[in-house]
Request: fold
Amino acid sequence: MTDKRDYYEVLGVERSASVEEIRRAYRSLARKHHPDVNRENGAEERFKEINEAHEVLSDPDRRAAYDRFGHAANGMGGGADPFGFGGSPFGDLFESFFGGAQTGQRQRSAPVRGADLQVTVRLTFEEAVFGVEKDVELTRLETCEVCNGTRMKDGQTPPRCSTCGGSGEVRRVQQTILGQFMTAAPCSACRGEGVQITDPCPNCRGRGRVSRARTVTVTIPAGIDEAATLRLTGQGEAGPQGGAPGNLFVKVQIAPHPLFSRQNKTIQLQIGINVAQAALGDEIEIATIDGPVEFRIPAGTQSGQQFRLRGKGVPDLRGGDRGDQIVTVQVITPKELTPEQRDLFERLAGTLGSEVTQQHTHRGFFDKVKDALGV
Reply:
């Protein structure tokens, strides 16, 4: 098709480039444009274009056909269709009988993304409020630094499988009630990879990846809440055969505080005062997450009454204003009194009277109208 770019241009190599040069160019571009790494617009389409170019140019037969006929050599540029069923009803029939084996080679040649990992980081109440940097320990698979992931000694390119010719599959003709069908099964010699590790790398033993213990520094943003999960892109395991690395997910756990509790951006604190402080008022010192502050208890404060301290709560995770601190006052009635205290309370009780004041717990709309009209 005329709107397709030249495959050599896509990979940025000369038409005379070797298989190893094509492989290196592909790995570099695949890492750069993988959708999990590159969030720019068009990255996914670019990644697909790179994969398509690599599929053709890494296969000697398909490359030779492409050099001669261009994109028309592979089903009008849309990829090879080894059985000629592309776009016809027989393609679906074939897939129903044989599991779509005809697409196996293209799927196996695509890079495989590395596994995601998860760790848990434990924070104090203050660390969650103000943010902190934490080091987490993990063990992950990383690309072997000796063979650069090729799995061969000294980083050699693995030779094509002699059994399947590098296709990764063995094709057979089967006689069915519908006639003869060609079927494809993964090659048992190379396990469907298309290459054979004839001289394994001694460092990774032919696996292409090695296990490494790592320390990763995690930046915890101010205001993070319990059970939140942070994603560190590309800090997971390396992908096999040049695939993009996975991600690291960091789950947050916050230890309880002896004084404070939290609801979103609001910090809650309960304090106890005596009946004299509640009746007369007092100047007291109360705790906040920023340190102690002076606070005035107004005269006549009731048990359960709440007061708001502006800007003494949790910072907004998205950069907004800080929340508030709510102080709930509990008036503590003494259970044991000295003779002097009992005498003072008895004299106070005599001045207050003993009549019990009863209050309606709920008054309806019509009750309030009657009061207003004096009815």
Q: What stands out?
A: The domain at 1-80 is CATH 1.10.287.110 (Helix Hairpins).
